[in-house]
Amino acid sequence: FKEVENFEIKMKNPGGMMPFLTWNDTCETDVIVTMKRLCTDLPFMVKFYPAKQDKRLPIDAALDFYESNFGIAIKKRHLAYLVTQQNGGMTTEARKMGKEADVAVDDAMQALEEMFSVNGKKWLCGDFPSIADYLIGAQCTDLMLHGNTWGEYPKTCAWRHKMFIETPGFREVHADWFR
After folding, report:
1. Cα(29)–Cα(32) distance, integer angstroms
2. N or C, which end of the chain has less CB nearby within 10 Å?
């Protein structure tokens, strides 16, 4: 990213990590920490990560699921894709990575589908979208880019559709993935 090469940006973000947020002279590169901080510090964002601990518990659980399962599966899928692109096609290594990534993504999608089956809510953690919906929803757009199918996950598919139709700003941010 050329933006990272800017001198002022390098002073604030010496590691060149993307994405990042500078807040009160602190550079934050962890997406979950950044999202929580924005929701804590900006009054109009608190609805996505409420101040009450009992409301945060299901959101924190979903974010843990992202870090320990879903996000890892997505990274495996990306890595397999990149190895395929760098090698100019499918090598034995790329095929193996692709199969492992497919298993990881399928396991993560089955877990996500089960979360919707168990909670019976409109959104991942309740009756209103949370930062977990935004984060996992954003990663789901990456799965679409890789051509993953959704037929086996009807509740997750319906949720993803709601993310694009009913969630403020989500479609606008992710629309370029589908052009």
Report:
1. 9
2. C
CA quadruple 98, 101, 106, 112: dihedral, nearest 10: -150
Q: What is the DSSP string of 152-171?
A: T-HHHHHHHHHHHHHSTTHH
Q: Is 16 helix (H, G, I), strand (E, B) or coil?
A: coil
Work out the angle at residue 114's Cα, subtended by the Cα atoms of residues 151 and 78, and round it to the nearest 5 degrees.
60
What is d(CA 80, CA 85) in angstroms, rounded to the nearest whole number? 9
Could you count the other beta carbons within 10 Å of the beta carbon of residue 30? 14
| Triad 163, 169, 170: Cα angle to 5° | 35
Check if the beta carbon of residue 102 is closer than 8 Å to that of residue 74: no
pTM: 0.81
